[in-house]
Amino acid sequence: MPKPLLNSCCLCQSTRNGSVISGILAIVLSIITIVVIFTTRVHFKTIIFDVIPNDIVKIILVVNLCMTILISLLMIVGVLKRNQYLMVPWVVLGIMIAIGLLISVIYTGVVFFIDGYVLTGVLWLIFGLICCAVLTYCWCVVYSEYANLTEENERGRYNKQPYRR
Question: How far apart are CA 19 and CA 142, in angstroms?
């Protein structure tokens, strides 16, 4: 049985409200990123496969962002319907994205340092690690709500505490 990591979100909201806010934030950021991908001339590179054309990398990113939108919608529905099974994909995806973001931020910061862009590397590390910390906190909030719902469902039908609205 998973144990909740947090009892509240931002010390004043329930983990339920924080989970919905995290899902909405993920959807909004994904839509903004898709718009930025298609409206700017940014050259995207992958860390390992450097020979992939830029258009293919953009398509891969957009497909991943669309899946993030879908999984975030599932998570929001799971929170609102109190169904922990709909939250599982977001919990798994969230921790994978947090680890991937941390690796990407450190790698890109080191590349900036190697290329001689010290200020850019420092700023990239500072803002990237802040983003990674916020993402990890959002994941902890959603995981805590998932653990609360799992505990509620394991108690059984007649042992549940009344749900307050």
Answer: 5
Q: What is the pLDDT of residues 100-124, one digit of tens each?
A: 889 989 988 998 899 888 999 999 9
Residue 73, Cβ density class (10 Å: 0-12 exposed, 13-18 middle, ≥19 buried): middle
Strand partners of residue 13: 9
Q: Which residue, chain included where needed, has tokens 């042992």? A: 159
pTM over 0.90: no
Q: Give the span between the Cα atoms of 53 and 74, in whole angstroms.
A: 32
Residue 122, both tokens: 């420092």
Query: 135 near 94, Cβ under 8 Å?
Result: yes
| pLDDT single digits (tens) 133-146 | 999 999 999 999 89
